[in-house]
Amino acid sequence: MDKQKIALTIILFCFGIIITTQYHSHVSFSSDLGNLEQEELAVMARELTTQKRLLDSEINDLEKRLNEVADTNASSIVILENLRSDLVSLNKLNGTIEVKGPGVLITIEEEAPIIYTDLVKIVNELWNSGAEAIAVNDNRVTASSYFYQSDLTYQMTIDAVILDPPFVIKALGNPDVLKTGLELPGGIIDEFITYDIKPEITTIPELFIPASDKKIDFSYARAVQ
Questions:
Q1: What's the pTM?
Q2: Contact of 133 with 209, CB cutoff 8 Å
Q3: CA 202, CA 187: separation in Å to the nearest integer?
């Protein structure tokens, strides 16, 4: 029994030494940490603040660049859409694409005593009335188109393509305006009537005008830079 007490006492004594040692170690560590906070915490705080400012600056720069890229992309999209719209408009004017829309259909029967200058007058009147696209017998009229009539056979052509009666002229634009332009008192239709030429003019909700297969080559004209 005494031996057990002695052994227990020794164990408790050793345990007390361990606890005391750990306590002193903890106190020493806490003291070191306190010293570290006092001596270096301010420096660490300044460094972290500086790093934060740098990161904030980088974030602001990136956001600014992102906004610039977004603005640039938006501007590029607008420019691209404008270019596409301009290209479509130019293709319409040049007759290189098929077009459709409301307009008028003018039919001149086979027996009418018509000559090529009469077709030219009708086409010009339609242009003057705001026509956006014109075709004669499904041959697209462009800025470089020309009409011709043989002195021997009286055969009419447009851009060297033979035109056979009946002559059908299609024009896209405001139907009422185009029809009114042709039927003005003293205008082209009144002139035709005196020669017993009676074109039939019909307003159409939707007409199709084919593209021209004529290629325009510029040998002398150059773009001004």
A1: 0.63
A2: yes
A3: 17
Q: Is 170 helix (H, G, I), strand (E, B) or coil?
A: strand
11 pLDDT more than 60 = no
Asked if residue 113 has a cis previous peptide bond (ω within 30° of 0), the answer is no
Cross-strand partners of 104: 171, 203
Strand partners, 141: 134
> CA 154, CA 215: separation in Å to the nearest integer?
27
| Distances from the Cα of 6 to the Cα of 18, 98, 126, 193, angstroms | 18, 115, 128, 145
Domain segments of the chain: what residues? 1-94, 99-209
| Secondary structure class of 61 (helix, strand, coil) | helix
**CATH fold of the domain at 99-209:** Alpha-Beta Plaits (3.30.70)
